[in-house]
Amino acid sequence: MGLELYLDLLSQPCRAVYIFAKRNGIPFELRPVELLKGQHHSDAFAQVNRLKKVPALKDGDFTLAESVAILLYLSRKYEVPDHWYPQDLQACARVDEYLAWQHTALRSSCTRAMWQKMMFPVFLGEQVPPETLASTLAELDRCLQLLEDKFLKDQDFVAGPHISVADLVAITELMHPVSAGCQVFKSRPKLAAWRQRVEAEVGKDLFQEAHAAVMKVKDLPPADPAIKEKLKSSVQVLLQ
Predict the structure, then answer these.
(1) CB within 8 Å of 37: residues ≥ 6 apart
(2) What does the sequence similarity comment in the record state about its family (predicted)?
């Protein structure tokens, strides 16, 4: 059995892995895992990833969790162009720096913004206190400013003059609040120009394909009671 990727393109890290593999012509078998149906909690999926999260990779008898680890595994195994994860010590360190920062900064605020603005009220039928949403959007704005000032600066891409895995991780995060109607790029011309460069490097068709599902989430019908109960414990943390 060849490479298998367990993904749900509603997940921003899954989108990063999907775009990276497709853009670099890496052959893989897509194994869909529907998060909103709780399929990641199944016993069958736990055999692939005991953490019960996507993305997950299976390469023969080898399994791997965590999106950053998967991206780096693919970049090394398939010897993709160097700019994705540079060999140069300091250029590589810049990519690593962003990947280390984003987990508790941009990732957190983008996920909360999407769920509080759209998923809780529309999909789960739960109203979010206005002050909670306002605080989340303020934190998102702070993280966007850091993305511009600390990482992007006057460069073409997050970690330097060329696109890297850092850019894929960043852009897929930002499309989460965009799908909920947040005007992430409207008043940020530097960020908007960066998005256009990333889309051009990835290819507009692939970019749109990867984000088609999340951009349609707003049209989902309300969750049935069984799904609500299944998701309740795992998503309540997004209200904090």
Answers:
(1) 227
(2) Belongs to the GST superfamily. Theta family.
pLDDT in tens, 92-121: 999 999 999 998 899 999 999 999 999 999
What is d(CA 137, CA 134) in angstroms, rounded to the nearest whole number? 5
| Side-chain-side CA neighbours of residue 145 (13 Å) | 6
- pTM summary value: 0.96
Could you tell me if 11 and 49 are in contact, meaning their C-beta atoms sit under 8 angstroms apart? Answer: no
Task: Give the structural domain span for 63.
Answer: 1-82
Higher pLDDT, 228 or 6: 6
CB 29 within 8 A of CB 174: no
Count of domains forming the chain:
2
* Rg, the chain, Cα only: 18
Task: Please tell me whether residues 97 and 44 are part of one structural domain.
Answer: no
| CATH number of the domain residue 109 falls in | 1.20.1050.10
Percentage of the chain beyond pLDDT 70 is 100
* Same domain for 127 and 69: no
- The gap between the terminal CA atoms of the chain, to the nearest Å, is 42
